[in-house]
Amino acid sequence: MKKIVLLLCAMLAFSLTAEEVGKEEINVEKRLAELQAERTKTQKTLIQHRRKAIRADKYAAKLAREILTLNQQLSEYLDTKQDIKKLNQDLAKIDRQIKELKQIQAEQNKKANAKK
Prior knowledge:
The protein has helices at 2-26, 28-56, 58-78, 82-115. Helix 2 (28-56) crosses helix 3 (58-78). Helix content is 94%, strand content 0%.
């Protein structure tokens, strides 16, 4: 008897939870958009605070300069590697193709708008 009561309680709890989840799903897209907007806003604020800190704090400014220098050195060193050089060339080729296609698309849109 106790097992049946426990089973019924568990089923009731599950059904109540399922109803709440169903209600929440209605607003998922709206809430997701709100959270993404909030994240973007918070991220921009964080960047601004970090910039202020780097400008105001001499040690932070020194570290930032050192990091930039090391990052540039690492990039230059890695760019000497044959496989990375090839990948960079591939990316540049893809970027050129994208740029060309965007220009063609813009021209086609211009012609389509001119016909209207």
